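Pasting two entries for a bug report.
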Amino acid sequence: MIKYSFQILPELNLIIRSFKGELTVSDIIQSSEIISKERDFLPTMNFLNDIQETEFQIKEEDIIEVINYYKTTSKVYARRKSVHLTKTPTQVIFGTLMNLYKNETLVELSVVSTLDAALLKLDLPPGKKTSIMDVLEKNRIKNQN
């Protein structure tokens, strides 16, 4: 069973979303639907997707389904950056396939294995690292319950 949590940081134009467990297409779409209904949500907000604690049961056609969802849902599709924070080769492959199949330039998608690299890709100052680490840790604690 997948667990996810998120926090919207309007002052950084950032949404930090953390997943834990076995990740499926419906988990990704469901979490996006919930986030898009939040009062502080804007479609142009950048995403930091922490997928370090996930396992994948997603095939290539599932990735295409997720991409099609984003492209056809105007409330979540806009120019922004999306970074996948990874730990395992399977997670890297997932992010790489997402980037390969998205076949557009509106969303700039990156796959990284360190928070420093994520901050760089998201154009966030290094001074924000501690506060972002705190949010990631809070999300991980929420996902344990």
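Entry 2 (this is the one that rendered wrong in the viewer):
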Amino acid sequence: MTVAPAAELSPPAAAGVVARDAGSARNDFLDAVRMLAGLGVVWVHTFPANDGPAAQHAGRFSVPFFTIIAVWLMARRPYPREPLVVALPTWGTFVRTRFQRLYVPFLIWNVVYTIARMAKGTLGVTDLDVGWFFGGASTQLWFLLFLLIVQCVVRGMQIAASCGAFWRVAMIGSCAVGMLPLFDQDFTIHTGRPSLDYFIQVSWHALPSACIGTATALLGLHRWAVPPGLCLVCLGLTGAAIAAVMLHGRMYAVETLSGLTLALASISRFNGKAIRYLGALGAYSLGIYLVHTGVLDAVRFAVDRPRIGTDIPSLVGVFVTTGVLSLLLCMLLVRLPYGDRLARWLSLKG
């Protein structure tokens, strides 16, 4: 697949919804890893409590990985002298398109999950406040607003970095400030609005991943063709980091490291039938992320929550069922009449 000239690209594509180098094919291995990361989020949420047994932490790499990759994909021109695939939009145009791509789906899904929670009796009208526009009515929605803020800031930093070497160094150096959350494991905040508190807290812990993604993108690291040998080393480091978190509990620095090493591994170019198939499913990774909590609640209700238990075999069954049904639901919605519009407005595929 080659990249079309600017005139042939749709406005979202021209705005960097998915940014790729000229003449490059879609990276099936990256898409396959995205699929695994999406399932990692499902695995974490399968457990009844957020701080469950060691096995739950096997999926903690997912959010750092998604954050770094999201920055890399939109940061297609870190240096001003590099040839352009398409003309970069102005910052205002970029913000508008990202708002449509990320925050509009956030609002739509927020309404869906709010109605569902009201129907279950777990959310009342009096519980809705300003935090609803930040944390959302479901635990995973915060990530869309976080990505919107991060990508708009990163694009502004790219524009500043294009003004010269001094500004590029200054922008990279400013990312060091965003590493502070790594040294504050127990950060909490109390505004009196639980959804807003939740958004601030999880965004605080995800900030280092965004800063690492930004700094490495400004350095051009995201454009490397990682050789197979280095890819295997990165995968080994990812596995070691995941094992450390499973053994010792939550460690945000190690979780961030696992996301970075997996992101580096994912930009390698492994091929194969299984990778191509899994890569095709990887296009639905964000959709799975957005729908899985509703599907998970339905699965728990169907099998009678008290009977699920907390033993790993039971949870694996719930995880597999939720993952498969979430994928099938996304594929079904995309194939409905006006499925392309649904995919765009609900961020089901990309």
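Dev reply: Rendering is fixed now. As a check, the viewer should reflect this: The longest helix spans residues 91-120.
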